[in-house]
Design goal:
Helix 1 (2-15) packs antiparallel against helix 4 (90-130) and helix 3 (68-77) packs antiparallel against helix 4. It is built from four helices and eleven strands, in the order ααββββαββαβββββ. 36% of the residues lie in helices and 24% in strands. Strands 7, 8, 9, 10 and 11 form a five-stranded antiparallel beta sheet that branches. It has a two-stranded antiparallel ribbon with strand order 1-4.
Length: 195
């Protein structure tokens, strides 16, 4: 099960655009808009300047999403960018730095919401894997995650009308461990209107 969960985490990283290593083929396929700077000269066709060596500091992926690691790397290497054999001016570095810092702030902001979404998806996936042998009368999943809390999930029961279970869990190194079935707390949900 641990391997399945680690694969799930890797899958989520791919789905949310966090690509750890961009090889030269991937970088070469990116549009100019994925780079912090494109030196003057060259020929632009379909959004890609040739020669591609004129494009500097990739920081957005192929979908135009800001990549946190590559944006940090671009900021760190900004004073090394050369066009026509000379390091770009400090004034141009300042303009690019401001754009990259704004992009970095955006990436960090979206990373928080992505992390929360990933946590919910991770808990739900882990629950499905852990209890996949429990089947409903129609052969599908007997229980599905209805709500995720910091230390427990609320699951709905397919075969038991208006029956929910609260199931405690712990998480360490992206591995979710749920309490045994005997420790599930049975209950139901009732809607209470605001007064």
């Amino acid at each position: 099960m641990e391997k399945k969960l680690q694969l799930a985490v890797k899958l989520h990283e791919v789905l949310v655009g966090q690509r750890a290593v961009w090889d030269s083929a991937y970088i070469s396929s990116l549009k100019d808009s994925s780079f912090a700077h494109v030196c003057s000269g060259g020929v632009k066709k379909d959004g890609i300047t040739s020669p591609k060596s004129l494009r500097k500091l990739p920081y957005k992926d192929a979908d135009g999403k800001i990549d946190l690691a590559h944006t940090k790397n671009a900021l760190a290497r900004l004073n090394q960018v050369e066009c026509d054999g000379e390091v770009i001016s400090e004034e141009l570095q300042d303009k690019i730095r401001a754009r990259l810092q704004k992009a970095l702030a955006q990436a960090k902001k979206s990373l928080k919401s992505i992390s929360y979404s990933r946590a919910i998806t991770g808990v739900s996936y882990a629950f499905d894997q852990e209890f996949s042998e429990i089947r409903a009368s129609d052969g599908g999943h007997q229980h599905w995650v209805n709500e995720v809390m910091d230390d427990a999930v609320i699951v709905d029961s397919w075969d038991e009308f208006d029956t929910y279970y609260k199931i405690k869990y712990t998480v360490k190194d992206n591995i979710y461990t749920f309490v045994s079935r005997e420790k599930w707390i049975k209950g139901n949900y009732k809607f209470t209107p605001n007064k």
